[in-house]
Amino acid sequence: MAEIKVIVAGPRGKMGREALRMIKDDTSFELVGCIDRTNDGRRVAEIEGLPQFDAKIYTSAETALSELEADVLIDLTTPEHGYKHTKLALEHNVRPVVGTTGFTDEQMQEITDLAEEKEVGVVIAPNFAVGAVLMMQFSKWAAKHFSDVEIIEKHHDQKLDAPSGTAVKTAQLIKEVRDSHKQGHSDEKETLEGARGADVDGMRIHSMRLPGLVAHQEVVFGGLGQTLTIKHDSHNRESFMSGVKLAAEKVMELDRLVYGLEHLLD
Ligand code: NAP
Q1: Atom of ligand 1 at shortest distance to CA of 36?
Q2: Atom of ligand 1 nearest to the CA of 165
Q3: 76 CB less than 6 Å from ligand 1?
Q4: Are 45 and 51 in contact (CB under 8 A)?
């Protein structure tokens, strides 16, 4: 198979660095360029701590996508810029693989429509760790039998969006099978605002942010005389890379948006 030509947006970030390492170790990919907020015109290898790539860095996503011959854009930046990069990539017929989380429903709809119009594949996955995808699938299964559930997500304190994309996605999957109802006592009152977390269709999501954490989630179901906890931990960012690799390969065969890694797993 020919090498997949990749642009990485956010190469100095924690995820971006890991993606560069993955590309370096995998002969099925070729890094053709990076989109960064700084270092315009420099080579990746010149940046301290980044792998030895000759690929050029662009601060303008528009210029990168116009000048470079690329198949895939891997975006690991911020919600604001990730959204812009994704739209620009689609306009240039480059397939986005988006790990960046925090897009609004309206932004997701715009991306869905643009991908359909251009017939260009996109993969957006709030969690590229295969174990986390399984946690979400198991949770959806469990929700058929336990309709009371709370989600506790824990991340490092540099994360910009809350709740996490994974928690939102888990709640959406559970919502598909759970009888919609408000949980807890009907007269429940918060004496401190936010104490009960975010409300999604009557279920609660709690977000914890602490140094030392990476990405962790517990989905706790309660029933008469029993609880069931489904838990996943990403101990480091390497845990996301097999999913990024799979998405970058599969996106080549797609002509629309796929949201969630689970749709790409057998
Ligand atoms: P991070 O370490 O803060 O990295 C973000 C990087 O994006 C930084 O290097 C930042 O540059 C760069 N950036 C900001 N604006 C940019 C722009 N306009 N052009 C190019 N680069 C830009 O964060 P992270 O932990 O790597 O996470 C990145 C994203 O991935 C977040 O949205 C996070 O929620 C998400 N994430 C997803 C998964 C998944 O499995 N889907 C897993 C973990 C994280 P500066 O250093 O100059 O600010």
Answers
A1: 20
A2: 34
A3: yes
A4: yes
- Specify the residue with its C-alpha closest to ligand 1, atom 16: 37
Which residue has the least CA distance to atom 33 on ligand 1? 100
pLDDT (mean) for 178-188: 94
Residue 78 pLDDT greater than 80, yes or no: yes
Cα–Cα distances (Å) from 25 to 19, 21, 168, in that order, read 10, 6, 32
Whether the CB of 33 sits within 6 Å of ligand 1: no
Please give the model's pTM, rounded to 2 decimal places. 0.88
- Name which residue sits closest to atom 8 of ligand 1, judged by CA: 13
Q: What confidence score (pLDDT) does residue 266 get?
A: 75
Active site residues: 155, 159
Band of the pLDDT at 175, cuts 50, 70, 90? Answer: very high
pLDDT category of residue 2 using cuts at 50, 70 and 90:
low
Q: What is the pLDDT of residues 13-63, one digit of tens each?
A: 999 999 999 999 999 999 999 999 999 999 999 999 999 999 999 999 999
How far is Cα 115 from Cα 102, in angstroms, rounded to an integer?
19
Q: Ligand 1 centroid to 82 CA: how many Å?
A: 9
